[in-house]
Design a protein that fits this description.
two-stranded antiparallel ribbon, mainly alpha, 82 residues, 2 helices
Length: 82
């Protein structure tokens, strides 16, 4: 795929199927890690503003966390395997 994700000229569709956004963990190890960190994950605020001056919110903002940050709470042997 020299040109990357370019639609197939015959079908009009990408040769790559859609992303299903799955992140898989071993349930037992995930539960152990959550127990150790008490479920605390790194958080951030991602506000959406109405104006360029950033004085008014488009809608209420919220705390968010990203699942790709999960390895940052791992320790010991679990951290070494990531």
């Amino acid at each position: 795929f020299d040109d990357g994700d370019v639609n197939d000229p015959e079908t009009g569709f990408s040769p790559f199927p859609g992303n299903i956004n799955q992140l898989l963990f071993s349930a037992e190890e995930y539960a152990d890690a959550l127990e150790e960190c008490e479920g605390v994950m790194p958080e951030f605020v991602n506000p959406k503003y109405k104006d360029a001056a950033k004085t008014k919110f488009k809608k209420p903002t919220r705390l968010e966390c990203m699942m790709q940050d999960f390895p940052t709470v791992l320790k010991g042997e679990n951290a070494e395997r990531v």
